[in-house]
Amino acid sequence: MKIALCQINPIIGDITGNKQKIIDGYKKSINSGVELVVFPELAVCGYPPQDLVEKQEFREAVKKAADEIASVTGDAAVIFGSITDNLDDIGPDVHNSAIVAMHGKICFEQHKTLLPNYDVFDEVRYFEASSDNKVFIFNGKKIGISICEDIWNDADYWNKRRYYVDPVQKLIKQGAEILINISASPYAFGKRTERMKMLSVISANDKLPIIYTCCAGAQTDLIFDGASMCFDNYGKLCLLGKSFQEDLLFFDTEADYKQIDKCEGKFEEEVLNALIYGLKEYCNKTGFKKAILGLSGGIDSALVAFIAVKALGSQNVHALLMPSQFSSEGSVSDSVQLAKNLNISYDTIPIQPAFEKTLNLLEPFFGNLPFGVAEENLQSRIRGLFLMAFSNKFGYLLCTTGNKSEMAVGYATLYGDMNGALGIIADIYKTQVYQISEYINRDEEIIPRAIIDKAPSAELRPNQTDQDSLPPYELLDKILKMYLEENKEIEEISQIIGEREVVRKVLKLVDFNEFKRKQAAPVLRVSVKAFGYGRRYPIVQGWRK
């Protein structure tokens, strides 16, 4: 069977635009002589639609669009993801469905069986799970259709299955000859390789081809990398869609293909591409044309500036340099050199006059109290004020520049350097910031060497460095990764690290600063556990007093 995989980039709620993408993709595909055209999960409404699903008018618009897509079909069938009505009187009113249409009408629906309810997923809140899985007979072949999570429960691949039910095995027992999985699978580094291995095991063990179609694009914090895959009935990866862009693949289940052994690049390349794509998508889908950020002379803002340039073009990125009395000469000169290397515009606004004026206004209240965190944070908040003023006046998207390590331990100022619409690097640790920066400089020095080599510092008091109050980042990041991404606790981490008191202090900092992260900008997700929607932790809690 000749099958087209349409790896499209839908926008949540843009039903008219998404419908047209599907119709255009279908028409283009059938002109190439295919029998079946496949689109991703919830392609009509975008994924995840969240509380839009609860609006009746929204559901009706989606249904109307699905019927209009079906109306243009002929002998070639199309499979696309949409929401459909649940007609019983129990549970949610809708299904997450794969719709099959041909000859001008909808002829088959397969609802999603396994509804993920972990990390960034909350499908149990919105959808009713299917209790039935049936093959669809098309052109003499039994087609088994599943939706994303339905295929992530294979007993031969996972040590521990997430669900009691395996919808894919139900389809195979009914004689499915081809497996099709439509997906909207959020990106995290390493997931594409795991996906390839899992699908290969299923294909080889059950001796049938698998067509896996995933959407591309980014929806606020969630990045979808595309990379759709086709496997023959020996588990061989035959076709691989492009990463971080739309694509159209044509697969013949009877043809012989050269095996693809690798589907994912190294960490620095993949994550950098994902962050660039995430920022570009956010701007495209929200209407921003330009971005602004504060350049401090540090490595974090340097990396964010590079990402912004790659996403939007140097002509659309502006920087503010805002030195104070505590800023080193290198902080300014290194920032100027970076701006020149990236060919971005910049303005310099010394914050010292505003800082001193604010201190004078507060003197009647602060009296002779010693200089402390209040005064340190004032500087960051003055900088945030200037950045927001430029954003409002000139229509810039303000990019935050904090990394995951800083966000974890609260080494950031609310209403100061945390100001902004999107956390560009807030899901990569400080050590990974250095790693990616070195990768950027692999052929030429784009990020000045002085920025990479200098000791990290917030420069809010004399001779300050991050390591005055934090463990070395190599140690800190090991602790944070085990705590945040591997769910290890103090005893287990201490046995591995060997410094229990350091571990205790770090975990306490993470827990205490939850209130800051609840007010932080959305974070571009590139790991298995990012701050934001995927990590829900109580602010008020007594687990670690």
Structural features, described:
The chain is an alpha/beta fold and 545 residues long. The chain folds into 3 domains: 2-264, Carbon-nitrogen hydrolase (Nitrilase/N-carbamoyl-D-aminoacid amidohydrolase, 4-Layer Sandwich), CATH 3.60.110.10; 270-466, Rossmann fold; 471-512. It contains 16 helices and 19 strands. The chain has helices at 15-30, 56-71, 167-173, 191-206, 267-286, 299-312, 329-342, 352-366, 373-394, 404-409, 430-440, 449-453, 473-484, 490-497, 500-512, 514-517; strands at residues 2-7, 36-38, 77-85, 94-102, 105-111, 136-138, 141-147, 178-183, 210-214, 216-219, 222-225, 229-231, 237-240, 247-252, 290-294, 317-321, 345-348, 396-400, 422-423. Helix 5 packs across helix 11. The chain is elongated, with a radius of gyration of 26 Å.
| Strands, count | 19
CATH topology of the largest domain: Nitrilase/N-carbamoyl-D-aminoacid amidohydrolase
Number of domains: 3
> CATH architecture of the largest domain, please?
4-Layer Sandwich
> DSSP strand (E) fraction?
15-25%
Could you list some keywords that capture this structure?
single chain; 545 residues; alpha/beta; Nitrilase/N-carbamoyl-D-aminoacid amidohydrolase; Rossmann fold; 3 domains; six-stranded mixed sheet; 16 helices; 37% helix; elongated
Summarize the structure.
37% of the residues lie in helices and 18% in strands. The protein is an alpha/beta fold.
